[in-house]
Amino acid sequence: MASTLTPEQIFCKYDVNGDGVLQKEEFTRVVDDLFGILREEDIKALLDSVDADGSGEVGLVELKAFLRMCSTETQTLHTKSALIIIDVQNDFISGTLANADPTTTDIVPLINQLRSAMDVVVVSQDWHPHNHCSFVESANDGATPIVTPAAPYDPFALVTLAADADRPEHVQCVFARHAVQGTWGAENHADLVVSPTDGRIYKGQKPNIDSYSAFYDNMKLNDCGLLGYLEEQGVTHCYCVGLVFDICVKSTALHGAEAGFQMYVVEDACRPLNRSEVESTKAQLAAAGVKLISAADAADLARATKGKEVSLAEFVAMANGMKAATKIEKKSSASPLARTPATQRLPAEASPPPSAPLQAVPPLDEYMKQHIPGIEAEIDQFLIALLTTRPENSTQFMADYFSQRTGAAPAASGAQGGASPPAINNRPPH
C-alpha cells in the first residue's frame, strides 16, 4: 500500500470522514496496513509520538513526518539528519550587505563543528545575476519593471514588481547589490568548511524573482532542488544554520516544515539582519512546528539519532520520550506560505521533475496545481467557507460548494516550455 502511494494519497485514502485530519481509528488503519495489527497501548504510544501538537489527531504534515521515517520493507523506522548551511557568504558578513553584528563570524566555527554530527550536509548560496530584481540598483536604473515607479529608492525599500510571463505582480524588498554570480561577495566565507560531497544549492538565479528559501523561490514557482535531494538521501531531520535568521533561514525552515521534515533552527549558529524581527520570527517558526535549538544540543541530538534504525516495538517503547513539544501545522492549508493561483504559476515543464518519485504518476496535489487553473485560490476560499460553516458532512459540503462555485468541472491547462532552476550538486552557472 504505502510504497506505491504518496503521503497525500495515503492521507486522503484513510481520512474516511473527510474532516482533514486522521482520527485515532483512521491512523490505526494506516499503521495496521504498514506494520500489521498492534496492541491498543502500542497504537496509543505511537499516536502520541506522531501527534506533535497533542490534539489527539494526525494532520497531513504530521503524517508526512512519520512516513519519512518508515520502511515498510524492513518493518523499521529510521532517522537521518541533514545540516543545511544557508548563505554564509562574504557579502552577508563583511561585504555589501554586511551584518551589523560584530560576532557574525562566530557562527562559522560552530557550523564547522556540527558537520561531523550529521549524516548529510547541504550548502546553499544566493547566486544572483548582475541585474537581479532584489537589487536597489536594478530598481533605480530601470532594469526591473516596477508598478508606479518612484525612483530613487533606498536599500530596504519595498517596491511592487510588475507582472511578467513568469510570475504575478508582487512586493519585493530591494537590497544593495549582493552575491553576484562569480564574485568574491558570492563566495562562502573563507573559514567555512565545504566538502566536494556536500549537496549544493544556488538560489535566486532568475533575474525576475527572488528566492529566500533553499527549497523554493519567493512565489513558490520554482523548485531550487533541495526537497528532491533530501528525499533521495532519506533525510528525516534538518538543522538550519547561517544567514540571516529572520529571512533566508526562516523561509527555508518554514518550507521544510511544510514538506514534513522535522525542522530545527540552530539559534547560536545564525544571525539576524534586523534584531527587531527576531521575536516575530521565533513566533512564526514555533507556529509551524520548527524548534529552536543550540549548537551543542543539536550536535548531541543528531549524534544520538545518526543513522539510527529501530524496530516498531523499539520506537513505540521510546515514543513518550520522543514526543515533540511544539505545534506542527495540522493541515497543508495552514501553511505559513502565501499561496499563488495556479493560473499565475510557471507551466509544468518550467519546473524540474520531482526527484525520487514515489510512483509513476505525479502526486495528486501537484497534478491538480499544474493542470487545473486557479485550484489553489479555489481551495483557499473553500477552506474559509468550511471553517465558517463547519458542516456535519464535509465531503458533501465540498462537492456542493465546488458545484455551485464553478458550475462545471475546470478544464485542464496547456503546458509550455521554460527554463529550469539549477539542479543540486551542479557547478554554479556563470
Proportion of helical residues = 25-40%
Assembly type of the chains comes to: single chain
The biggest beta sheet reads:
6 strands, parallel
CATH architecture of the largest domain: 3-Layer(aba) Sandwich
Beta-strand percentage? 5-15%
Taking the alpha carbons of the first and last residues, their distance comes to: 45 Å
Number of strands: 11
Number of domains: 2
Unreliable stretches: 319-373, 405-423
Radius of gyration: 22 Å
Say which CATH homologous superfamily of the largest domain is assigned.
Isochorismatase-like
The ordered string of helix (H) and strand (E) elements is HHHHEEEHHEHEEEHEHEHEHEHHHH
Which fold name is given in CATH as the topology of the largest domain? Rossmann fold
Question: Taking all residues together, what is the mean pLDDT?
Answer: 78
Main structural class? alpha/beta
CATH class category of the largest domain: Alpha Beta
Shape: globular
Cross-sheet strand order for the largest sheet: 7-4-3-8-9-10
Q: Mind explaining what this structure looks like?
A:
Helix 6 packs parallel to helix 11 (295-305). The protein folds into two domains: 2-79 and 309-332, Recoverin, domain 1 (Orthogonal Bundle), CATH 1.10.238; 81-305, Rossmann fold, CATH 3.40.50. A hairpin with an 8-residue loop joins strand 5 (158-161) and strand 6 (170-173). It is globular and about 70 Å long. The protein has 430 residues and is an alpha/beta fold. Helix content is 34%, strand content 13%. This is nicotinamidase. Keywords: Calcium, Hydrolase, Metal-binding, Pyridine nucleotide biosynthesis. Its EC number is 3.5.1.19. Residues 2-37, 38-73 form the EF-hand domain. Residues 329-361, 406-430 are annotated as: Disordered.
